[in-house]
Amino acid sequence: MSELFDLPSDGQESENTVPENEAPATAADPVPEKAAQEAPKPAAPAEKSDAPQASGETSDKAKPYMVLARKYRPLTFKDLVGQEALVQTLTNAIKADRIHHAYVLTGIRGIGKTTTARILAKALNCENGPSTTWDDDDKQCKAIAEGRHVDVLEFDAASHTGVDDVRSLFEGVGYQPVQGRYKIYIIDEVHMLSRQAFNALLKTLEEPPAHVKFIFATTEVNKIPVTVLSRCQRFDLKRISVSDLSGHFTSICEQEGIKIEPAAVAAISRAADGSARDGLSLLDQAIALSGGAEISEKLVSEMLGQAGAVQIFNLLEKLLAGDGAGTLEDLQNLYHNGHDPVLITQDVLRNLHLLTRLKIVPDLKNSNILTETERTMGVPLAEKAPLDGLGRAYQMLLTALDEAKRAPRPMEAIEMAMIRVSYVAPVPALQTLLQGLGGTPDVSAVPQQAAPKAEAPKVEAAPVEEAPQQSPQQAAPKEPAPWEDDEDDAAPAAPQQETQQQDAAPPKM
Fold this sequence. Notes:
The chain has helices at residues 11-16, 30-38, 40-62, 68-71, 84-95, 113-125, 139-146, 163-169, 195-206, 226-229, 242-256, 262-272, 276-290, 297-304, 309-321, 324-336, 341-360, 372-384, 387-406, 410-424, 430-437, 441-475, 482-508; strands spanning 102-106, 152-156, 183-188, 212-218, 233-236. The protein is mainly alpha-helical. Among the domains are: 70-236, P-loop containing nucleotide triphosphate hydrolases (Rossmann fold); 242-304, Helicase, Ruva Protein, domain 3; 309-425, Zinc Finger, Delta Prime, domain 3, CATH 1.20.272. Strands 2-3-4-1-5 form a five-stranded parallel sheet, covered by helices on one side. α12 runs parallel beside α14 (297-304) and α15 runs parallel beside α18 (372-384). The N and C termini lie far apart (214 Å).
């Protein structure tokens, strides 16, 4: 027992106490022990070195997708689409050092109001500013783009409408800017502020410090008090044209490596209704729907719930030709394929407007904004369709569109409207009809005979009116009846005798 509890005096004795089932240790054994202790140390860096690679691989796959509207948001004045007047005015003001203390940017959604406000903030606070251009690695501009600039404060008036919110926002107006040249307040949806909040804003807005600039963005400028508008420079951002949107979307598709038909781009641009953000959202949806294949016009039409351009032109051609049965057949086919009758009517109205423009401005057929279908089917149809028929059809369908929205079954209302249009559209205008009828001999006599008929009562009435005046003269030559002669002779004789007696009476006296 004492041998079991005796501690070894040196390393050699400890080696003798190794159990029999284990191999005896050698002089090289301490080296593997150190290697075993040091092995985890290089393994840890190896895991760390692998971690970035793995995270890099997963970061590319798991990286959150950024929508096209944010990914391709304009960063400079030259990137703004369709706002040439605004860009020219602000550029000239910055170059001439005539920078106003407050701006109001108004317009529809998705045309660049907030984006313009941020670009203006970059121009005022860039390193070499105020300037209309700056370097890509400008620290001030990077901080503004990332939303971490201390002196550029963005305020959402839709969620902070009270007077206390405005007061807390303007507490630092009197302090000098910390990071940039100007302290800039960007207030989005400023029309949502309350009346008390606008009143709290007035004094600061009227006489702000030299280092403070205000930029307001709104979609309803009519709700901003006049006292506020009179203290600001107002810019009305216009709707972006279809041609500008088409070029912008085509450029983005090229950068993204997306194949898309020009007709599909035009369809998305028209559906965007002048808004770049709405159009980019539709383009995102079309890319997801295509699944990597080429985006066709048919795919976009199905996505938007619209009928194909060829189908609409076929329906319109039958409608203007007066083919009611063919029109209803095409309308039923579109309806059974899942198209909304109201949207079908809107497409027909849009094509009627296009045909009218082609009729008034013939040079429009050479414009690049027309799709191939519009050029091949719309131009010939516009040449043979009468202008008055196009106008009547547009008015009747526009009225039918309102009726369909109120009708319990919109399809029936649209069908009745199509029947009315097909019945009236081929009929020429009244003036054209009269001009055409004036050349025929049978009808030319109708207006000539109509005039005597109208004057006949006047000619016959004249003798009737003069007959009583001539009756005494015409009655004299008539032979009187025997009893009339005696009465007529006796009647005038009596007064003669009386007059003779009256004349003879005075001499007797």
